[in-house]
Amino acid sequence: MRRQRCAKIIATLGPSSSSAEIIKKLFLTGVDVFRLNFSHGSYKEHEKHYNIIRDLEKKLNRPIGILMDLQGPKLRIGTFKKPIMLHEGMTFTFDTDPSPGDKTRVYLPHPEIFKAIKREALLLLDDGKIRLHVRKSTPLKIETTVLIGGPLSDRKGLNVPSVTLPISAMTEKDREDLVFGLKLGVDWVALSFVQHARDVQEARRLIGDKAGIISKLEKPSAIEHLNEIVHKSDAIMVARGDLGVEMLPEEVPSIQKQIIRTCRKAGKPVVIATQMLDSMIKLPTPTRAEASDVATAIYDGADAVMLSAESALGNYPVESVAIMDRIITRVEEDPFYRQMQEASIPKPETTRSGAITAAARQVAHTIQAAAIVTFTSTGNTTFRAARERPEVPILAITPELKTARKLSILWGVHAVTSSDVKSFSDAVESACRMAKNEGFANPGEYIVVTAGVPFRISGSTNILRIASIEPS
């Protein structure tokens, strides 16, 4: 079950991928982490998917990651007496009157927007199809001019770009969903609508160490606080759907690269998501532009790429995974890809653990080792190893199944569980055995082993050993 690539694939489950048979096919084809989207589906459906994945994990004896994606606060307008058409130059008003709207006004059930909005701001409706310019605002009314019109009907979504809204990233629904997901045992929680590091801190108080936190960057205001958000998060997702609505299209590619660079420097996994193979919702092959989009994310150093509607609702979920797997594999075979990874390796952390991990990459290169083997309880040692983007695979050995599942999102990592080791000599013997059994090294080849002694102390990576694989 070893993947012959470094970047990982996340796939969303939904109506097109809800059976045990399809989920197994998706995993065997290349999915490393399954996403449960709590914007849709019932608890019963999510629990069913969770149980299918865990049963598959036992049958195949491979840790599989599960990500729950919280909906977050969704801004929507009220209802209309009948659908309307907005035209350029018209005046249109948002107010606090809950009665059905008409061609001049509509109810906006979000008082926080009235508090935060400023004159000259933009408001976007229906995924950015309609653009409005704010001329005047009061605590009870926002008066706008239509810049780009279009048809408008009940409860369409509203985006407020470049305005930091005084709302939490977690709604009451999210809190209820989170309790359910953590009880199930998800490995990662994706937090929507993150604007500040304090949004992550709020989630951390609820989640603790029960799951990793992935902050989804969907608003331009999050980019202003990028370093702080990355620091507080366990991983980052570039959610290009809402980000693409609230930013100009030409800004998104450079922002994506900026986020990847920041995550690489911090040693935090980064996921690129939304519309990667969008045409495969209906067609069996992607466009050349979509293939290039996936490839660009891999060249830039993303840890994982994600399928959304392609695998959840599309007609070709397995084919979407297969093509994404082929694109990643082809990019990673390109010598230019290795050059780019070498050129983008951040400076080592000025700690013992950082020095050992950077040295492991260099030693593995010098002696042409078959693999780097990390021993980890919390995953921190392996996160550091992946930060270095070594040219050989990383075999992570952990006594914690929970940790092995969490590492499934991480670049270049193949995680296995093993009984706890008591000494470093035991660790080296276990590393050699696992490297051979998992197909990473043959007799006569070398591996580089890193660990922290004493074991089970987070952040204590302090030993590096070169070991030779002996014949059986």
Topology (elements, then pairings):
Blueprint: E1 8-12, H1 20-29, E2 33-37, H2 43-60, E3 65-69, E4 84-86, E5 91-95, E6 105-107, H3 111-116, E7 122-125, E8 130-138, E9 141-148, E10 150-152, E11 158-159, H4 172-184, E12 188-191, H5 197-207, E13 212-217, H6 220-224, H7 226-232, E14 235-239, H8 240-246, H9 252-266, E15 270-273, H10 288-300, E16 304-307, H11 309-312, H12 317-333, H13 335-343, H14 352-366, E17 371-375, H15 380-387, E18 394-398, H16 401-406, E19 413-417, H17 424-437, E20 446-452, E21 461-468
Parallel strand pairs: 1-2, 1-16, 2-3, 3-12, 5-6, 12-13, 13-14, 14-15, 15-16, 17-18, 17-20, 18-19
Antiparallel strand pairs: 4-10, 5-9, 7-8, 7-11, 8-9, 20-21
Helix pairs in contact: 1-12, 5-7, 7-9, 10-12
